Amino acid sequence: MEPSPTIGTMQTPEDASTSYEYISPIGESYIKDAARLYPKPRKEVKRRDNEFCLVDRIHEAEYGKLQTPPEPAHKLVITLEDDNFTEEKYQVYDNYQRVVHKDLPEDRTPRAFKRFLCSSPLRREVMVTPDGQNRKLGSYHQCYRLDGVLVAIGVLDLLPDCVSSVYFLYHESIHKQTPGKLGAMHEIALAKEEGYRWWYPGFYIHNCPKMKYKIDYSPQFILDPNSFGWDPLDQATLNLLDQKPFLSLSIERQEASTADSGPETDETRCSKRPKVSNQDGQTTPRNGTRTEGHDNREEENNDEDEDIRSLFQSSMPGITCASDMEEVDLDHIALKVFSTGPLFETSDLVAWDSKSITDWPGIKASVAELIAAIGPDVKDLICLDMARERA
């Protein structure tokens, strides 16, 4: 399936809204008995009946928020833990990949789980915000336990202004409880409570049924692959995605504003397409076709060269071109070379100064590709982990 051009989707937690069925784990008996034993003030009851506060509602069923006695029918405990491997987590992963994705046994091994969802290279640390609040950064597992049994895991990257939802997995025994939607609500609540501002559900492929759930929340925005601006993901945008395999709303607006300037020829239409400079300084339209002088048939027939070419030679939207990357200082990116000990910088690597970002494959070219993909503005905020333990 061809992916849509929505590089990512982002939602503000302020007005997140969706509708879904959720059966409370605490049970009707507890609800009735607790209401009798711990009556709420009339003003609070009225406010609850007329206002919806996500942060308040989402935590109501958690065991730590309940008043006891009586005991609830089930105990729901949600914790934010380091993204380390445990056998308990692996069992949930194994069940989810087998039941939902139909993975073969050799594709859902402990090693696969470790490589995919554990021990992220993001460093865990605590950031002190301008108002003096502590905010966690790094990769975490949000673990959902029911009666002491781990039943779901939300894999999260906590960034300075964003809760990024990497993956969500759950045991088949709670499938009817719509755990994915429950997890999304908890993640949005986390963004709101801790001041991360945004919840980021990640890539969106419009014609992939398994990703349709991502548009259940609003208001939501998508990243324009041409202008890198955020546009509302509204019904008008969804209609355009139904019609086009590639969509840039900034280009749509530009074309609409020049619609009365006269008929377009193939040449002028091609000139309007956004272009990306490749490693050789040539330009490539973002739709993947080459400019004059390049034989597409040669590329199609040379699978080996296609597989090993540099990222700068691709037509991938959003990648900083090689000529721009030449101006970026890559010499002081933090490196973790040993599992313990001090950090190094990229310029400490042997032969770093004698290589260029066009010497591909090579470490300097690989680092340049990474920074081109994630954005040069974050190069001073990352650490490249070259000491990860092998399974």
TrEMBL record:
<feature type="domain" description="N-end rule aminoacyl transferase C-terminal">
    <location>
        <begin position="88"/>
        <end position="224"/>
    </location>
</feature>
<dbReference type="InterPro" id="IPR016181">
    <property type="entry name" value="Acyl_CoA_acyltransferase"/>
</dbReference>
<feature type="region of interest" description="Disordered">
    <location>
        <begin position="253"/>
        <end position="307"/>
    </location>
</feature>
<feature type="compositionally biased region" description="Basic and acidic residues">
    <location>
        <begin position="289"/>
        <end position="299"/>
    </location>
</feature>
<dbReference type="GO" id="GO:0004057">
    <property type="term" value="F:arginyl-tRNA--protein transferase activity"/>
</dbReference>
<dbReference type="InterPro" id="IPR030700">
    <property type="entry name" value="N-end_Aminoacyl_Trfase"/>
</dbReference>
<protein>
    <submittedName>
        <fullName>Arginine-tRNA-protein transferase 1</fullName>
    </submittedName>
</protein>
<dbReference type="GO" id="GO:0005737">
    <property type="term" value="C:cytoplasm"/>
</dbReference>
<keyword id="KW-0808">Transferase</keyword>
<feature type="compositionally biased region" description="Polar residues">
    <location>
        <begin position="276"/>
        <end position="288"/>
    </location>
</feature>
<dbReference type="InterPro" id="IPR007472">
    <property type="entry name" value="N-end_Aminoacyl_Trfase_C"/>
</dbReference>
<dbReference type="Pfam" id="PF04377">
    <property type="entry name" value="ATE_C"/>
</dbReference>
